[in-house]
TrEMBL record:
Pfam families found in the cross-reference section: FCD, GntR
Keywords tagged on the record: DNA-binding, Transcription, Transcription regulation
InterPro entries in the cross-refs: GntR_C, TF_FadR/GntR_C, Tscrpt_reg_HTH_GntR, WH-like_DNA-bd_sf, WH_DNA-bd_sf
SUPFAM superfamilies the record matches: GntR ligand-binding domain-like, Winged helix' DNA-binding domain
GO molecular function: DNA binding; DNA-binding transcription factor activity
Residue ranges occupied by any HTH gntR-type domain in the UniProt entry: 12-79
Protein name: GntR family transcriptional regulator
Length: 227
């Protein structure tokens, strides 16, 4: 017969499980920006008590996915146009540096996988599949970087701008724009050649294009979620 700790799961493990499930739901668009996450609903949906749900929400707040208001509740993080513009300008400057740190330690299997992801994105007709592949592509290209701050900062910015990349993806697909795919292929070629300057240049332009396109569509930021 097991001990008490064997029978009763630790709150930490339950909280991490709920955080993983909520994170996936938020990033996949099941929760819109500004949507309220009610603790009781989340507890029922994820088969947990409110204690691990509260822990999960704190984890997601630290990742930039959720905004907690004391004695009020939790909402999916939402950005205005100016905030999003600022975050993209930060990304333009720090992600090329993170990529520069990463490239020297990317092995051949990792680079081949980046090529696979770039090709798969070109073939995909599904927006959610594209976003999943795109996230894996870029964060995978940074994965070999050995940093104590920069990697976590970039991932948080990715989390907070996820919904707006979805909006950008709809725009470039509707207009038949293939530049995103062209950039991905150029990035893989630069990484394969260990051309750090070219990789930084391509990535900077890639992020900048998204920022400028979003600025052309301020309506993306004007549809508040009411709850």
């Amino acid at each position: 017969m097991g001990t008490v700790t064997d029978i009763i799961p630790r709150t930490g493990s339950a909280g991490e499980r709920v955080a993983n499930e909520l994170r996936t739901a938020i990033l996949s668009g099941q929760y819109a920006p500004g949507a309220r996450i009610r603790q009781e609903d989340a507890a029922d949906r994820h088969g947990a008590s409110r204690v691990p749900v509260r822990e999960a929400l704190r984890i997601l707040e630290a990742e930039g996915l959720v905004t907690l208001v004391a004695n009020t509740g939790a909402w999916v993080s939402r950005l205005g146009l100016e905030e999003c513009e600022e975050m993209y300008q930060i990304r333009e400057r720090i992600e090329p540096l993170l990529l520069r740190y990463s490239i020297p330690d990317l092995g051949q299997p990792e680079i081949d996988h980046l090529q696979y992801l770039a090709d798969a994105m070109e073939r995909s007709d599904d927006i959610e599949e594209f976003l999943t592949l795109d996230r894996e592509f870029h964060l995978g290209s940074y994965a070999a970087a050995r940093t104590s701050v920069l990697g976590d900062m970039v991932e948080q910015l990715w989390n907070r701008t996820q919904h707006y990349r979805r909006a950008f993806t709809r725009v470039f697909r509707s207009e038949g724009d293939r530049s995103v795919h062209h950039d991905h292929q150029l990035l893989v070629h630069a990484i394969r050649r260990s051309d750090l300057d070219e990789a930084e240049r391509v990535l900077y332009g890639h992020i900048r294009r998204t920022r400028l396109e979003l600025a052309r569509h301020p309506d993306v930021f004007l549809d508040p979620v009411t709850n």
